[in-house]
Design a protein that fits this description.
By secondary structure, the protein is α/β, with parallel strands linked by helices. The protein has one domain: Rossmann fold. It contains nine helices and eight strands. Strand 7, helix 8 and strand 8 form a beta-alpha-beta unit. Helix 3 packs across helix 7 and helix 4 packs antiparallel against helix 7.
Amino acid sequence: MKTLTLQSTDNYTLHLKIFDHPTPKAVIKIIHGMTERQERYEDFAGFLAENGFIAVTVDMRGHGQYAPILSHIADKDGARLLVEDERVIRDWVKSEYPSLPMVLFGHSMGSIIARKMLQTDSMLYDKAILSGYVNPQPAGSFGVLLTKLIGMFRSMKGYSPLLTALAIGPFAAAIPNAQPHEMRWLSYNEDNVARFKADRFCGKEFTVGSYNALFRLVSDIAKPKQYKNVKTDLPLLLICGEDDPCTGFDKGRLKSLSVLRQAGFTNIETETIPQMRHEILNETEHKKVYERILQFIMHNS
């Protein structure tokens, strides 16, 4: 594994980790989720490298040990900047490995960013995987307006219990007997939940500016008409735990699938795994998930 830094379009420093292989079949670009960090994907990335692929991870803007302000994406234009960060990384990958296919992998908020990328850049990818894919919400536009209003009084670097309750509250509420502050919705694996809560770089409350970016992205991915020049036969895998509240359960999962189909994608596989919640890569039987993802990547590669 090697590390490097790239400068994004606004000179924000992106910290990458490259899990290499001497004779790689493809490159898998991993986008992690909200309020976590790339180190939580090292085991998965190592598994991909062991099986003949290059895996690239990066701390999302406002995340990880080098974030100028932890959990603060930007005062404004955060959604656009997150997409530009991914384009900078993609361009580097293609310059470094010009002959290799490229697979886009996004988990949770990363799956939202991945879908935003697919709205304009689907032709530039060979496969895409959406893990713990968040239910698209047209009402996210209301959240955007609310963050702007709250930001006028608290600043975009401030915090809002109301926004956190709107964004995260329903996930905890979906778990029987869970308290609002608990993180049991992450996984059935209690050790994983404990490690998340003990990690000082995980679980830090989003700022108002970060929620502005999140709500903008959630609103955008709900709009099939925003998908342009779609690579209709792009192989897509939508994979999640059956008990993952972030997906919106059956109704929300069907909504995600419907939006992508309306956008023009025709080659979509779905995998809903029983007895798993949101972080399928960190459940006790996560190796089953690894193998299912590997099967998808390997097919016709």
